[in-house]
Amino acid sequence: MSFSSGADGVGWRKSSLHCGASVPPDLPPSRAVAPAEDLRLCVSAPQMSPARVKELCELLTCWNGSSFICRSQVERFIRMGVPASLRGRVWKCLLNTDGLRESSRFSYQRCLLEVRERLVDLGISEYSVLSAIATLSDAQNLPPSARDHEDHIALFRQVALDLQRSFPSHRSLMGDSPEAIEGQAKLFRVLIAYAKYNPRVGYSQGMSYIAAVLLMHLGEEEAFWALTALLDQPKYLAQLFDLELTQVQHQVRVFEQFLRHRKPKLSQHLESLGVVPFHFVMPWFLCLFTSLPCWDSVLLIWDLVALRGLSALFHAALTIADLLESRLMEQREEGAVLPLLLRVPVDV
């Protein structure tokens, strides 16, 4: 990965969003993701030396989130490229998931027991929720004991439908293998638990992608608390997610002004074609750039989000616009512009 120092201490050079492998060499295939088939064209990310890995392990073992020294040191390791085997620990430290769990009165395991009771009333299992979508969609097929659970049914159905859209090529999420069935159940449980934890926000599209990535690097309950930290804290994504998605629309408008200031010619060109940031920035933000064609780049952005918060999303979005500017300026039709923005080419 290539980095450059910016006003906020961490920035990207143009090469940083299109280099790296879809699967880091030390990440087991069972936990790998291939968001696009052309990921194999990417170049492998540089590997941290064993001495540096040991140094990072020691830092995480003695982590103090309130220490400027600790945070500046982990920033240095992010610039080097965090090893896949340690990324989960880095995210846990930066998001303070242990502290959040210990200070909360919410019990993840107790919540799961309550959810399972509702599922039993519906006559379905968390391990067969995808196949039960049709049943959940037809109130006439529900047993009498489930007729009073309409709110739960709506939530279960919405989450179940999105499970099918989250990384459809990932072996631990799709298919009928034991690994995939367990992966789907974990993702379902984490998302339902968060909706119960914070009913003010509930569940909305995009969360399934975020939770899925967290589950690739953390245990199930750890992933839940990491999701909670990301979605609830103002520093991170609390300004993106709400029931009506009004907050993310506001952030997109902020980025639109940002783009007009930093890239006036590009902004004017997009507007002349009828392309507005809502068309492409909203999916970028809500899914935390998981649609990028290079998985190393996705994880780099996630590392920086964990470190810097929401501002990292704006920097990433502006970098992508910068990378694509010459190609976008050549286009004369909306139908040619949006595919470039929504499916960023690997060879930019």
Keywords:
348 residues; mainly alpha; two-stranded antiparallel sheet; 16 helices; 2 strands; disordered N terminus
Straight-line N-to-C gap: 15 Å
E-strand count: 2
Helix-strand string: EEHHHHHHHHHHHHHHHH
Main sheet attributes: strand count, strand direction, barrel closure: 2 strands, antiparallel
Mean of the pLDDT scores? 83
Strand percentage lies at under 5%
Share of helix among residues? 55-70%
Low-confidence stretches: 1-43
Kindly provide the radius of gyration, computed on alpha-carbon positions and rounded to a whole number of angstroms. 21 Å
Q: Give the overall shape.
A: globular
Strand order in space, largest sheet: 1-2
How many DSSP helices?
A: 16
Which structural class fits the helix and strand makeup? mainly alpha
* Multimer state: single chain
TL;DR?
The protein has 348 residues and is mostly helical. The protein is built from 16 helices and two strands.
Give the arrangement of secondary structure elements.
Blueprint: E1 3-4, E2 11-12, H1 50-61, H2 68-80, H3 84-95, H4 97-103, H5 108-122, H6 133-137, H7 150-163, H8 178-197, H9 207-217, H10 220-232, H11 246-262, H12 264-272, H13 281-286, H14 295-308, H15 311-330, H16 334-342
Antiparallel strand pairs: 1-2
